[in-house]
Amino acid sequence: MERGCFERAENERIYRKFFATVPRAFLQIVDRHHLGEMRVVDVGCGYGHYLIHFGPGSIGLDANETSRRLAVSIGLEIVDCNVEDALPIPPESFQAAWCANLLEHMVAPHLLLNRLHRVLAPDGLLVAKVPVIPPWPVRAGVKMLGRPLGYEASEHINAYTPDTFVFTIERAGFKLIESVSLDLGNPQLQAITSPITRRFGASITVVARKDPAFVYPEKRLDNFDPKWMENSYR
């Protein structure tokens, strides 16, 4: 709050709304997969409230000037970048990519995932989080409480279920390691119950590893011109 570039009251508001509310499940993922030691690219990093937990050499990408100013003022490395247009990053230059609450906004989420596949090291990790459409009983209960459902936000143009999000990640060349929805506070219990609990949360976080040998199946290449991929990584 002292180092932030805004008046103290605004710095404190940002801290309390973003930095102080980072989910415990995210911090557990950082610990389990050693992201605090890795060079991570945070795609759509906002104020840097996730980026601050990653290893040396990590950078954030964001097109919002206000959030970039705050992140830079607290010592984070931020690149002015609209990720809808390009990822100005050399191939295989990061050990992991973090992408939170972004893919539901994207015109071409598959294209972004392909770009991230390229910038990751051969054994690189992708950690991605999106709001999901929960089962009908959960939706009905939330509506009865007068609470909003995250996936319905007016700025979202894509919607996922836990299964369709995992499918999307895998079809972009990644192999699932784990998925987390409800935070049970116990990693072992979380892993055992994940096939059930991941269907009842309002969001899902997926950890996946890059498959360096990934190519599109022959049937797709026979029926769809892949030349658009030649320029997709810029």
List keywords for this structure.
single chain, 234 residues, 19% strand, Rossmann fold, alpha/beta, 7-stranded mixed beta sheet
Report the CATH topology name: Rossmann fold
- What is the overall pLDDT average? 87
Number of E strands: 7
CATH homologous superfamily label: Vaccinia Virus protein VP39
- Round the Cα radius of gyration to an integer and report it: 18 Å
Annotated CATH architecture: 3-Layer(aba) Sandwich
What is the CATH domain class?
A: Alpha Beta
- Show unreliable segments: none
Helix content: 25-40%
Through-space gap between termini? 36 Å
Secondary structure category: alpha/beta
Strand adjacency order, main sheet: 3-2-1-4-5-7-6
Main beta-sheet annotation: 7 strands, mixed
> Which series of helices and strands comes N to C?
HHEEHEEHEHHEHEH
Structure commentary:
Helices cover 32% and strands 19% of the residues. The chain contains eight helices and seven strands. It has helices spanning 8-17, 24-32, 65-73, 109-119, 136-144, 162-170, 187-197, 218-223; strands at 40-43, 59-62, 78-80, 94-100, 120-131, 174-180, 203-210. β2 (59-62), α3 and β3 form a beta-alpha-beta unit. 34% of the residues are buried.
